[in-house]
From TrEMBL:
SMART domains attached to this UniProt entry: A1pp (SM00506)
InterPro entries: Macro_dom, Macro_dom-like, PARP14_KH_2
Recorded superkingdom: Eukaryota
PROSITE patterns: MACRO
Domain called Macro: residue spans: 53-249
PANTHER family: GANGLIOSIDE INDUCED DIFFERENTIATION ASSOCIATED PROTEIN 2-RELATED, MACRO DOMAIN-CONTAINING PROTEIN
Protein name listed in UniProt: Macro domain-containing protein
């Protein structure tokens, strides 16, 4: 028996609950999808390896591998980590501050130099810098929209734009993996489920790539609407192979 972190809900009920469960899995899959038809309960069980829990993994026909995981971005082993930045590239709170504390002052220094030459960014903009002492090679500073500042359709468009900008920077640097948080979902107020669906929808099955790319969407276990939004979007938009799920949500 292997202990998995779990989230579960009654089918057609948007409320998800968090827990742990011992499950017999000979292969010790990263993710197992369980559906108790008699009780109408759907469970997503993620195997925690070190500090990383994987909840969904999909391989698209173009070779793109998409993973949804709970992890610490400050320690995550990806070529590129995306920072949810503000327009002034100031690391004053949330993920940005955590990344700065792990990277060292050089991360803020390089952002300050960019800003002194080019001015503030706008919502939908992204730039790439060196990563300081972080384990990744680069940090992409992505400015998502403040949800209250725009109508819903404009906010969604700007969030899609900044994710596309980030992915273009990843490809331009020849990198093979990128970890993306739920941009704009913190103090910028973007609803978590809409945020997750919007970000995931930028990666359709036929997104053209010059090389295989591993894209990891990082969420927190307590952010159930975020996790649910990612997986629901992959279900409805993917004709790829679900590598770590026993079925589709």
């Amino acid at each position: 028996m292997t202990k998995y972190k779990t989230i579960e809900c009654v089918v057609n009920n948007p409320v998800w609950t968090v827990g742990e469960k011992e499950i017999s899995s000979v292969a010790k899959q990263d993710v197992i999808l369980l559906h108790d038809q008699t009780k109408g309960v759907l469970t997503v069980a993620g195997l925690e390896v070190g500090s990383v829990s994987t909840y969904c993994k999909v391989q698209m026909p173009n070779g793109l591998i998409i993973t949804v995981a709970k992890a610490d971005l400050c320690k995550y082993q990806a070529d590129v980590v995306v920072n949810a930045s503000n327009e002034g590239l100031q690391h004053i709170g949330g993920l940005a501050l955590a990344l700065l504390q792990a990277a060292g002052p050089q991360l803020q220094d390089v952002c300050d130099r960019y800003r002194s030459r080019n001015g503030d960014l706008k919502p939908g903009d992204a730039i790439i810098t060196e990563a300081g002492q972080l384990p990744c090679q680069y940090v992409i500073h992505a400015v998502g929209p403040r949800f209250s500042d725009w109508d819903r359709s404009t906010a969604v468009r700007l969030l899609r734009r900044v994710v596309r900008q980030a992915l273009n920077l990843v490809v331009a640097k020849g990198c093979r993996s990128v970890a993306i948080p739920a941009i704009s979902s913190g103090i910028f107020g973007f609803p978590l489920d809409l945020c997750a669906e919007t970000i995931a929808a930028v990666l359709p099955p036929r997104y053209r790539l010059e090389m295989p790319l591993l894209c990891i969407f990082i969420t927190k276990l307590v952010h159930i609407p975020c996790l649910h939004g990612y997986c629901r979007c992959f279900q409805s938009n993917s004709d790829g192979s679900w590598l770590c799920c026993g079925g589709r949500m």
